Please model this.
Amino acid sequence: MQKKNNYTNKFDIDLAKGMQMEETLKEFFEGKRIEVKSERHIWETTGNHFVEYECRGKPSGIAVTEAEFWALMLIREDETIVMVYIVPIERMKALARKHWNNKTIGGDDNASKGVLVPIEEIGECI
Model:
């Protein structure tokens, strides 16, 4: 006896829903300011995102952003984008404050000060 398969081909319905969600996302971000940061391959070892707040003695990064959202792109050494997190800026600031004791230097020429925020916590910001 052949096992009954509950799968039905709903491609046309799923496609329409997917296209509607794409439009909804586009409309959601339309006119919004987004600060885009990339974390290149070191995150794979540390599990952290370096949130810059000062560079060369002046406020920078999260301390001065006027963005509404913080977009973190996780990138591998071969430049493959692995994941993109998009979180409200206030949530990112709260995470940086929470991890204020994890301050360090980094960035180009180690000219920046920042806070190490566990990427896992960024992903839990729902």
